Amino acid sequence: MDKKIIEHKDKDMEHIRINKFFSESGITSRREADKLVDMKRVTINGILAEAGSKVSPKDEVRLDGKLINKKDEQIYILLNKPRGIVCTTEKKIKDNIIDYVGYPKRIFPIGRLDKDSEGLIILTNDGDIVNKILRAGNNHEKEYIVTLDKPINNEFLSSMASGVHILDKITKPCIIKKINNNTFNIILTEGLNRQIRRMCQVFDFKVVSLKRIRIMEIKIDNLLLGKWRYLNLEELNSINRLINASIKTEEASR
Question: Is 204 one of the catalytic residues?
């Protein structure tokens, strides 16, 4: 093969898409990076970035005029979110999760937990792991305890478990178990917008309280409401193991 062609290929391999650059720099996920580009908040060597723009290690990338540095030490935080806190990085929004945690470095939540709900949510500066979790699809278990406004019966539990028509689709089968007259435990493998609340509403029930107690293999245990802690090595290893397994399964099915 011609030497010039080899050199050209090697040079091209150094370039990555702007959204991947943001992800690997620990700034935000690829999806959020695309939004920043669309909002014309990103420049490459002084020129506004476009969707699909590529950058090399020598390029100067700025967000709102601020130079993007190399990736900081990766941070993984587990928060027991109280009600009233909004899972957004938009600091102009009152009671946003970033101001609530008050971490000194830039972090962002993985997924969402609606304002009226409480429980576990992970925050990180590792955009790459966010992208992998999202790309792996809705196959990871999330467990909740839900209290309704009136007593539940076996018919309700059976209907919820088999799938409910919301948002123009049928929800995936789930595991559900009665705890007491008004409360049940539910394990989902998908994350539709306000899914549990919408499912219950179909049967004329209103959610009084909703608490997420587990994400994949990470449990709430003794983490107090409103408090956070770092994920331990065992928890990080379990996340990576499940993510890698999901990605391989997805690729094999193509």
Answer: no
